[in-house]
Write a structure and sequence with these properties.
It is a single chain. The chain is mostly helical. The protein has one domain: Ferritin (Up-down Bundle). It is built from five helices and no strands. Helix 1 runs antiparallel to helix 3 and helix 2 runs parallel beside helix 5. The longest helix is centred in the first third of the chain and has 30 residues. The protein is elongated. The structure holds fe (ii) ion (2 copies). The site of one fe (ii) ion has 5 residues, from helix 3.
Length: 167
């Protein structure tokens, strides 16, 4: 059973993962409004991934004999100045998440919760991957100078499919 402090820290992150999901879902709407269905598809997969993260933590708390608690979620932004601005926001957000996962790991170490440390290792690697992927798209968007290049990138991002990792 997680300590009260550990349980509260994971619950806080469950709600933050749902907040992340809402930001990316809001970007789905933004990209559709910009006539960029490939970007919207990519963000739809990102939304599903964040819900998967929230559920993974939710199920962990229950399995560990704790209580998962849901709270009010802040409203996500609704508009961005450009596709680049949206992806720069996504990158800045993922960096915040990485910091939060690292803090969670420190709480697990301080609470001597070994099971939770093992559980959180997956998220530590996942955040490295997320930052790299989003950063790659930010760099590509910086190279985009005309509508043609944006169209090609949109076609690229249209191919992303979210599949739940095997347990
Ligand atoms: Fe996440
Ligand atoms: Fe993420």
């Amino acid at each position: 059973m997680p300590t009260k402090r550990m349980e509260e820290a994971i619950n806080d992150q469950i709600n933050f993962e749902i907040f992340s999901a809402n930001i990316y879902l809001s970007m789905v709407s933004y990209f559709e409004s910009q006539g960029l269905p490939g970007f919207a598809n990519w963000m739809r997969a990102q939304y599903k991934e964040e819900i998967f993260h929230a559920m993974k933590m939710f199920d962990y708390v229950l399995e560990a004999g704790g209580r998962a608690t849901l709270t009010a979620i802040d409203a996500p932004p609704q508009d961005w100045d450009s596709p680049l601005a949206a992806f720069e926001n996504a990158l800045a957000h993922e960096k915040i998440v990485t910091g939060r996962i690292n803090n969670l790991m420190e709480v697990a170490q301080e609470e001597k919760d070994h099971a939770c440390q093992i559980f959180l290792q997956w998220f530590v690697s996942e955040q490295m991957e997320e930052e790299a992927t989003v950063s790659d798209i930010v760099n590509k968007l910086k190279l985009v100078s005309d509508g043609g290049a944006l169209f090609m990138l949109d076609r690229d991002l249209a191919t992303r499919v979210f599949t739940e990792p095997a347990a």
